[in-house]
Amino acid sequence: MKPGHPAELVLDLARLVGGGLDLLRCCTAADADGVREAWQRWSGTTGPPHASSFGGRRRRERGMLAMLSSRLREAQVETDAELATLLRMALVRERRRAEAHRAVLIEVLDAVDSDALVLRGPPLAEWAYHDPDLRHSGPLQILVEPGAFDSAAASVAAVTRHLGRAPGRAVSEHASGLEVVIATSLFPGRLHAVDASSVTAQRKVVTVAGRPVATLDPTLTLLELCVLCSSHPGVRHLRWPADAVLVAKTGEVDWDHFVETGVSWRLGPVIASTSQLLRDELGADIPADVPGRLVSAGRSDALTAELAVAAYREAVGGDLRSLLTHLPDPRSRWRAVRMTGRPSPAMQRLTGRPFRWRDQPGRATRTARAWVHR
Amino acid sequence: MSNPARLVVPEDTIAAETLDGETVALDLVSGAYYSLAGVASDIWLLTAMGLTVDETVEVLVGRYDVDPETAEADVAALRSGLLEASLVEVADRAAPPAVRLDPPTASYATPELVTYHDMADLLALDPPLPGLSGMPTTDG
User: Fold this and answer.
1) How close A16 gets to chain B, by Cα (Å)?
2) Residue A183: pLDDT above 50?
């Protein structure tokens, strides 16, 4: 790919994982030698990590501490005493948390229709991680078909506290504080709308806390993870790329189906850029020809870049400044502003939001207000 | 016999594990974290098994180059600290049938209970947090 090519912008966005890469490499290395090598590389880049390396705003990194702890112990990597204590504490705490997370999942599933699919979370930890307690799972995400949405949301409401509702999406909170999301689309927002009815048949059933739980099959799970990695600022949760590496490693992904489905979702190049990054940076077991097949069968690179910018902005609530801060050069920033200001005709068709001059003064005012407030 | 009491770790409020010779314990109610290394970790394990002070001292004297008086004072002091921190509580339980510990990796040193109240800034505290409903949370 030529420097400055529009698809470079997609890769720039994917690379926002930035400082978390060394940590991810330690967590996802194939073997103990790989862990030691990744640790040395990390230490060589920033100096040996210590406990305070995970303080302040490093939330993404803190969610990976239990996994880091486990991998460093397996590889017999020595850290300073304070970090060693922190890592052990993270491991102990994560075990208790994982147990509590599974209990909430079972309680919620018992209240919902049995056809519901649980996305990622404890089921993924159960089949892709060698120790399910190591995955720091977030809110429970439950996918239901549109026809089952109302009854599922009502059933969950019986065991949770209602927080909010939008078409095809209900968010509530369990007494433990864990958020529970019932959705009819695999991804929130309009850009990556993948209807539940197109994926619910492709399921994998795993046992969580002694109960069978349905989740997306490995191929769709990896696709979902690639989209999440590419469409959230700076990869909001480092567990997603780690998940992707571990899922690819299971040998359960049907790569032809992966490419076909990625293309049918009209996200081929976006998934291609992420899977390329996972291969290049984290050594994911993704066949070398997969990113190329996704790109060649997908949409134009320019539209891919535009899609990535739009998805990024959607993920950060429209904050253009956050995007510009992360882009590496003036040319990328200018392209992002241009794409945001006047989407291409293809993008307008995709989003169903036509560009109209008469809308622009109001839009400019809203943007300026948001800018001032931030 | 100086102190015949046997203690127990309240598992509903304390999560503890011994890894690489260090015991880490989390108080699920207060959110405080504790660390016990070396001899302190041995004393924790023996106490959690239900050994009395005298029984613990006997094991320590067999494992380390330490006189019984010093060991007894150290064990008593540490157990007192553990009770004060609510990491253990007095229980009506029997003596364990057998005691097995990994070989010591260092010589005897005064055991210490290290308390951390600032770990909340370094760990991902997202719900569900068993027993920690009042703690600040992040979206980790």
Assistant:
1) 17
2) yes
Question: Cβ–Cβ of A92/B130 closer than 8 Å?
Answer: no
Contact A122, A132 (CB under 8 A): yes
Supply the pLDDT for residue A294: 84
Q: From the list B122, B130, B138, which residue is nearest A51 (CB)?
A: B122
Rounded to the nearest integer, the mean pLDDT of chain A is: 84
Give the residue on A whose Cα is nearest the Cα of B122: A55
CA B135 – CA B140 distance, rounded (Å): 14
pLDDT digits (tens, 9 = 90+) for A94-120: 999 999 999 999 999 999 866 799 999
What is the torsion angle, in degrees rounded to the nearest 10, for the CA atoms of residue A109, residue A197, residue A227 and residue A252? 70
Cα–Cα dist A361/A145, whole Å:
39
Q: Which residues of B touch A237 (CB under 8 A)?
A: 140
* Backbone dihedral region for residue A344 (phi beyond 0: left; psi -120 to 50: alpha; all else: beta): beta
The residue among B49, B38, B34, B111 whose CA lies nearest residue B77 is B111
Q: Nearest chain B Cα to A82, which residue?
A: B35
Q: Which two tokens stand for residue A204?
A: 């994998």
Q: Kindly report the pTM of this predicted structure.
A: 0.83
